[in-house]
Amino acid sequence: MSEEKKNPNEYSADNIQVLEGLEAVRKRPAMYIGDISTKGLHHLVYEVVDNSIDEALAGHCQNIEVRIHKDNAISVNDDGRGIPVDLHEKEQKSALEVVMTVLHAGGKFDKDSYKVSGGLHGVGVSCVNALSKQLIATIHREGIMYRQEYAEGKPVTEVEEVGTTDRSGTHIYFKPDDSIFIVSEYSFDVLSNRLRDLAFLNKGIRLVLIDERLDENGQQNEKEFLSENGLLDFLVYLDSTREKLIEEPISFEGERNGIPIEIAMQYNTSFSENVHTFVNNISTIEGGTHLAGFRRGLTRTLKSYAEKSGMLSKLKFDISGDDFREGLTAIISVKVAEPQFEGQTKTKLGNNEVMGVVDQVISENLNYYLEEHPKEARIIVNKVILAATARHAARKARELVQRKNVLTGSGLPGKLADCSSKDPADSEIFLVEGDSAGGTAKQGRDRKFQAILPLRGKILNVEKAMAHKIFESEEIKNMFTALGVTIGTEEDTKELNMAKLRYHKVVIMTDADVDGSHIATLILTFFFRYMKPMIENGYIYIATPPLYLLRKGQKEVYAWDDNQRDQIINEFKGPDGNEKGIHIQRYKGLGEMNAEQLWSTTMNPETRTLRQVTIDSSAEADRIFSMLMGDDVPPRREFIEQNAKYAKIDV
Predict the structure, then answer these.
(1) Cα-based angle 203, 325, 302 (whole degrees, multiple of 5)
(2) What is the pTM of this model?
């Protein structure tokens, strides 16, 4: 008897394949979702949304709604086919229950159901179920509405028919387990950034985010994302605060060997390269074979055109690959049936076949563009020549900074008060605003493991400076030599070499005022543009000095914000409401604290609060830094007005 051929559009219990069980998820949640803090909490939402996106990629879903409920529960609703509910032959239970209770069970493991699928760790909705206090799955399928409820990953009801329906789709409601997660509040901004990216990466799909928690004006927050032009819209969004070099962006789509590829790119007048890569909607922040293919094809095609045109004939030194990408913003999105990612975090694509196909697509399309647009081509090549000239000048400035071996102690900045530990894992350095605060920090620190580098005034804004100017800046030179890192190798690239990094905690410590915030932003811009791996490896922190010292009698209490201040005042008042004898000191700068106060509030590992700098979305971080530190004033003003926290300061 011949085997019956599967209908590729059929989606039933037979499509659900079981790989392994759920046992370890509640015991070791961080292995599956990254961590049990803010990142992991939001990751639960991404896993459920990714299932709906997979339905959309398969052509069966157009609308996805995410709702944050008042109690920080989440519901995700789509108009896809609905998870199958019929009997799964191997497991002898409903396919819905299999999907919800068995790790790595789902249609995405069956090629007949989904050609490509996303999901950061591929753990699926079963992992979300395991880490939820309560989860309710409601399925609209073939005219019937089904429902099943779970607690801590286990079903507490059977799959029940609860009514009829004239639509299809899946509705997942879940309440994260607060005995597992150390945070419970969802961020509207974090979720909206993720949904915005998904809308750009999947044109024509409508995503809605609704926040039922009322804001200070008693209103619900709601955003809708729908992109008709996909990556082109994404590029316009990211580059909106930069000055364009050519008027119209370059974009093209292609498919090679069954791998769909989309690329959008735009040259601007900035000095940084901003290339963002995605595989099956996953942001691959470490790049991989698709990025390597893009760079190779771009460099070869542009170099060939520049040489043929004779524009490189007067150049007395070689052009490097970096020169072709200075001032370039690009987005690369590929869809791969069986992506191979390097490492548990899945941020680097390893499929070798992808490199060649991306190289082909960029080479063919860019070559055609350059031939058809000679005016724009000349502008791009002139930008490349300018970048090469600046890099040549920067090399000399950089060699001056990096010529001495920092591990021997020679060549370290005179202002640096180093620590005695030589183990980077145990050592930390404070980048302190101003000599006065730097002096106080030097007195208050623990010399064994804490180093202090005072920075004078506002450092150079690297967003608007050419590379050689950056290496001529005294404060930036001091940071390079103190940290022990170098930029550039024998190939003269802009890659950061952290082999001799001297501290694994770099703490930015500035005043808690507008100037302090500006200085912190300038330093962060420098790290993001020139030392991004330092942020990605979790080495950059921001100190949080207190805003107030409140005294009553012999009692002294610090407050880090206005709410804490008011709470302490009420405690000092007591039941009789007597404010007499309460003294409030507002710290306008770090220098107003003595060494002991600075140590106990801001530097002592036992009592301090450090905020680790992380990159939730590389593309969004790129846009924010460009907007805050670039030339375009109106978007910056609007951002500040929307995000400013107005302090009540006694004049």
Answers:
(1) 95
(2) 0.79
